[in-house]
Every structure is written in structure tokens, then in C-alpha cells.
Amino acid sequence: MIKSVRRVAAFIVMTISMLLLPDVCRGESNVYYYLPYLSTNSSVVTYCVVSNTSTYDVTTMTFTVMASQFVEASQTAQTFSSSLNLGRAKTSLFAFNQQTVSVDSTTGLDISSYTQTNSIYGGTLKFLSTSSSSINCKNILMSCFQGTTTPKRNLLGYLCEDDSTSGPGSNFNLIGY
Fold it and tell me: Are 106 and 13 contacting, i.e. CB atoms less than 8 angstroms apart?
């Protein structure tokens, strides 16, 4: 009887531990860039240069419209084609132009279901690597510019968050730009 109670207790503890522990236990690393200032206006294109300076490949990239001016955002992640993924030691140009998100001049996502023309919206760009503790805000770097003029305006006010332990006190990073 005591052995069966111990087994049940051990099973419950293991199950709860796996549910409460972060993605690191599942062998994943995630980096999130929160972009609150995007627009579907054709004269307010946003360009983001993203560099993967890690030695690991980004295996999945998603973009989620989190808030929209005239439409209630569904907050549903859309996944880029795997052919557009950010490989190790690679730099790509993301363009948020009207109602599309492009990577290296290839249209990756159509966000017209989540935004309206000539409106503003905010979103989350997520990078995932299936190697645990491999990518973070310190090695997936991003710099954004906005507008159609030359030179472009430097975009400020976006954030990077990860689920690593490379931040202060061995915690996650939260970096504002």
C-alpha cells in the first residue's frame, strides 16, 4: 500500500513539474520581439534587420498580430515557411509592408485578416530553436527602421524577451530598444 502511494505521489510530482517548468525542459529556446508600432500605411513600411549570431539554427519563426486599430486581433500565430528560417550566422531583412510580412524580399505572411488598410497594429515576432538554451536576446539581434524616406527613421520602443538563463542573476532577458 505504501509503495503504491509513493508511486502515485511521484507520478503527480513529476507531472506537475513538467507542466510548470519552462520550455527549456522540452529542449526549446524562444526569443520574442514585441513590436508595438507597425502600420499598414504604404508610406510607413517597417524594416527589421535580424541577425542570428548563435551557432544554432532557428527552426521556426512566427508572427502574431497582438493588437489592431480597427479590428479585434485574433492573436493567432502565423508561421513562416521553413525555407525562410534564420540559420546560424545568417542575417535577414524583415519588411512589414502594408498587410504583408516579407523575409529577404519573399512574402512570408499575409496579415490582411488581422489588420485593416491604413491602420496601426502591434505584434510579436517569435524565433524558436529546438536546441535548449541555444538562442536568446543576446545572439538573435534585431534593429528596426521605418518609413520610405532616405535615410529611414530609427524605430524605438520594441522589446526582446527570451526564456534563457543568460540574463542577470541567471534569469531570462528583457531588453528594450
Answer: no
Residue 168 lies in a domain: yes
Task: Residue 140: give the domain boundaries.
Answer: 26-176
What is the value of pTM for the model shown?
0.82
- Number of domains present in the structure of the chain: 1
- Residue burial 11-32, b: 16+ Cβ < 10 Å; e: rest: eeeeeeeeeeeeeeeeebbbbb
Asked whether residue 8 is assigned to any structural domain, the reply reads no
Render each residue's pLDDT in the chain as its tens digit; 177 residues.
Answer: 454 434 443 433 343 333 334 433 457 999 999 999 999 999 999 999 999 999 999 999 999 999 999 888 889 999 999 999 999 999 999 999 999 999 999 999 999 999 999 999 999 999 999 988 799 999 999 999 999 888 889 999 999 999 998 888 889 999 998
- Asked if 62 and 78 count as a contact pair (C-beta separation under 8 A), the reply is yes
Instruction: Answer whether residue 48 is part of any domain.
Output: yes
Residue 22 preceded by cis peptide, ω within 30: no
End-to-end CA, the chain:
59
The answer to the question of residue 161 being in a domain is yes
